[in-house]
Write a structure and sequence with these properties.
Shape: extended
Helix content: 40-55%
Largest sheet: none
Distance between the termini: 73 Å
Order of helices and strands: HHHHHHH
Number of helices: 7
Strand content: under 5%
Radius of gyration: 24 Å
Number of strands: 0
Length: 209
């Protein structure tokens, strides 16, 4: 009889703990991702701007992409046991980026990293003025969008300017299709205009060290 009472008591205690714990779980507010509405706040725009800088780690913190600026120059070349991680981005003429190989090694780094960064920059550019962000900070986003498109067009040639909501628009609708723009279009519609605006609006002295 005592064993039954003890089991009932333990079961009741566990039930109370679970019920009390559920209320806290339901109040959880995940903040690990940006949402479109978040970009309509000052905190969201500043958070997006920080993420543009953080993405540099995804590019230049990748050893295979970092190597792409040296392999095939008069400094170094790939060794006997090198795989496509080195050969694809070799600038001596041995490298050959193809659709089937683009998912491997250094050649996939810009493609996998830049488009989300470009969309973040577009979200900042479209929403920053409404929440009171200065033109100097918007110019930082314009620089990063131009920089990202420059790396993409230098690596792959023409790339899409429309990510789903129109050319150079902040895309909030997932899409599985795209239209590839030409190299001149990427430069004249994206890279040059954003860089010219950034040059005009960025201060002479940096805001951070």
């Amino acid at each position: 009889m005592k064993r039954i009472q003890i089991k009932i008591f333990i079961g009741s205690a566990l039930l109370i703990i679970l019920v009390a714990g559920c209320s806290k779980i339901l109040k959880e507010q995940p903040r690990s991702t940006f949402t479109p509405d978040f970009f309509k706040t000052e905190t969201g725009v500043n958070g997006g701007l920080t993420s543009l800088y953080a993405n540099l780690r995804n590019i230049y913190g990748n050893a295979y992409y970092y190597n792409s600026g040296e392999t095939g120059t008069d400094e170094v070349t790939f060794g006997q046991s090198a795989d496509q991680n080195f050969k694809e981005m070799d600038v001596s003429g041995n490298g050959n980026i193809t659709p089937s190989a683009a998912g491997n090694g250094g050649s996939s780094v810009p493609w996998n990293s830049m488009f989300s960064n470009i969309n973040t920059a577009s979200g900042i550019i479209e929403n920053a003025t409404a929440v009171g962000i200065s033109n100097a900070l918007i110019a930082e986003a314009r620089f990063f969008r131009a920089f990202d498109y420059f790396l993409l067009v230098q690596t792959y040639g023409g790339v899409p300017l429309d990510l789903g909501s129109g050319e150079l628009k902040f895309n909030i609708t997932p899409t599985t299709t795209s239209v590839r723009n030409t190299v001149p279009e990427v430069y004249t519609k994206a890279v040059f205009p954003d860089l010219l605006t950034a040059v005009n609006d960025l201060p002479d002295a940096p805001r951070v060290t």
